[in-house]
Amino acid sequence: MEGGVDYLIDERKKAQFDVEAMKVAWAGSRQAFELSDRIAKLVANDPIFEKFSRPMLGRKELFKNSLRKVAHAWKLIIDLRLSEEEAKLLRHYIDEPAYTDLQWEMFIPAIEGQGTEEQKRKWLPLARKMQVIGSYAQTELGHGSNVQGLETTATFDPQTDEFVIHSPTLTSSKWWPGGTAKVSTHAIVYARLILDGQFHGVHGFIVQLRNLENHTPLPGITVGDIGMKFGNGAYNTMDNGVIRFNHVHIPRNQMLMRVSQVTREGKFVQSDVPRQLLYGTMVYVRQKIVADASKALSRAVCIATRYSAVRRQFGSRNGGPEIQVIDYKTQQSRLFPLLASAYAFRFVGEWLKWLYTDVKQRLEANDFSTLPEAHACTAGLKSLTTSATADGIEECRKLCGGHGYLVSSGIPELFATYVPACTFEGDNVVMMLQVARFLVKTVSELGYKQPVGTTAYMRRVTALMQSNCAVRTAEEWLNPGVVVEAFEARSTRMAVACGQRLAKFENPEEGFAELSADLVEASLAHCQVIVVSKFVEKLQQEIPGKGVKRLLEVLFYVYALFLLHKHQGDFLATGYLTPKQASLANDQLRILYSKVRPNAIALVDSFNHTDHLLSSILGRYDGNVYPKLYEAAFNDPFNDSDIADGIHQYVQPMLRQELHSAKL
Ligand SMILES: CCCCCCC/C=C/C(=O)SCCNC(=O)CCNC(=O)[C@H](O)C(C)(C)COP(=O)(O)OP(=O)(O)OC[C@H]1O[C@@H](n2cnc3c(N)ncnc32)[C@H](O)[C@@H]1OP(=O)(O)O
Ligand SMILES: Cc1cc2nc3c(=O)[nH]c(=O)nc-3n(C[C@H](O)[C@H](O)[C@H](O)COP(=O)(O)OP(=O)(O)OC[C@H]3O[C@@H](n4cnc5c(N)ncnc54)[C@H](O)[C@@H]3O)c2cc1C
Fold this sequence. Notes:
By secondary structure, the chain is an alpha+beta fold. Helix content is 53%, strand content 9%.
């Protein structure tokens, strides 16, 4: 067989649902679909946005090329008068980490959330027109997770009405801020506020880093790049920086003062706005990261699914066609839960965006009541979705066998670019511990306070603790109420058990630290309740298109029953399920895989990913894998010559036994 073109045509004919309608369901609405389709094609058809050769470029070339892409994109935004939403999509489809991510996703949101009206009036127009370029400098060499442990100081000088920004130790050097090493003119620097020798907590300050005329660092600022990061290409398009401040003076009005103010006299004024709002930018970005998880996972799944339909191994001893690897039950049991997870994360991401928009409106109206819930949801779902996506991308690499390890499969770079999402914007374990605090508080208040929002199911604590699952056949698992109840019961029981064990400790903080591994598991169980319930809520909505809802239902059961199977230890240990019921869930899962199988290619086509975005020979829409792999091998610059540089110098002397006289 020359290529797999015929296989994908046949595969597409098997679909039992309307693919165009599924594309709309995936995008969220027809308008959203048309918008992203238009921008995806704009990027795919523009040679400046080519990215296939990216992993072969050296760091400086890679970075310069990235600057060129950003400049070209900005020109398009202006020339085509693209809206902010279209510009965001443009950045997504260009698919290259760059300083603009920090400008639009952190610098501007930080000013919007933590700035006063006056500060917003001054800085936002400049930033939105790219007349200043900003980054987010929070993490230091010595502290990232522990924000209260940051060491950079901002000392008020009443003589000059300025803050003096200073890095007192090596470990206080800002370390990681993206866009900072070479590009940004300004940064929001998080520092310990010191007034009259007194420490008043960590706050954000707008600090100018570079001269706007000649781009040189301002006096007192030492700045550079922190060095190469994991993988070729990948996150190395970004200039993550190190900054050291030596008594840098900034005007007093460059402290972000919505949460607290410093007066001309150097007095600290705490407003009614809770201190936690200082962490508000992270809530926004975590929500965005959840939305992006389904994009990354769906890319890997699309590549692995198409390739699994093209690839054949074993099964024929008489010259007939071999078996498509997608037909192996083991391949299906590894691939289809990831396909279902991509859809699950898409829908929970959509819901979280709604939740965030609601919280943002409330915060603007000084209603802070839902902030703790938003923090717990964004932290927990960020942790759940990024961990599952990073693991899922790696699983997709293995699902593609040896070819998955080739850079031209598109998977290595996707993985290398994606994995830091498990660490940035809050290490995933640290984030789950935040959920744990929220859960412990909720459980401890159950006797007198009704839980709300995503913990509302715990109102039925008595029933969830006492009643057991009633499933008797594999068929009975096909009931959303039954499935959701199982997840709610397991989560409630795990949280209550943690609460009871915590109560035995005299010192609650000691207890929390001692039980933290169990608390992380209970938090994950709670977050899984959210994802599963939001999928069910999606299915309760009207979903047009022949067969679309039915297929989404199948994916829902695959997602939920796969999780149930994976975590059956929890379900059994908490006593909600019997071993027989867990085994019936697994039987049902096998039946579900056979329902996904004929639709698998159409389900990944519904992501509407362009070949440009996938940048993968294995995941090509036409399935023409082998000829293109062969062609790409000989197009690799390393194959420019049959005799590689160094052969004459180092190999031939060895072959001729002349190494003793060779010049090495
Ligand atoms: C998609 C675009 C991508 C753009 C590129 C992204 C590049 C990456 C950028 C970055 O990584 S920027 C740096 C990100 N850094 C972090 O995420 C640091 C993680 N650490 C923290 O968030 C916090 O320090 C902590 C772990 C939450 C602990 O903070 P602290 O010690 O002050 O708090 P606690 O005592 O635990 O909690 C106090 C209180 O505050 C509540 N809370 C904590 N965080 C938030 C929040 N974000 N929003 C609202 N509330 C928050 C917490 O629940 C406690 O509440 P109570 O229990 O007291 O009611
Ligand atoms: C690609 C990339 C881009 C980044 N961009 C930026 C940026 O633009 N701006 C910025 O300010 N920062 C940025 N960061 C930094 C990032 O936010 C931090 O690395 C992240 O918050 C984790 O902090 P840390 O590095 O201090 O990890 P640490 O906290 O040192 O984590 C090390 C280990 O300790 C564990 N651990 C830590 N605390 C606890 C605890 N309380 N309980 C249990 N376990 C714990 C963690 O789980 C982890 O296993 C970036 C990082 C990366 C990788």
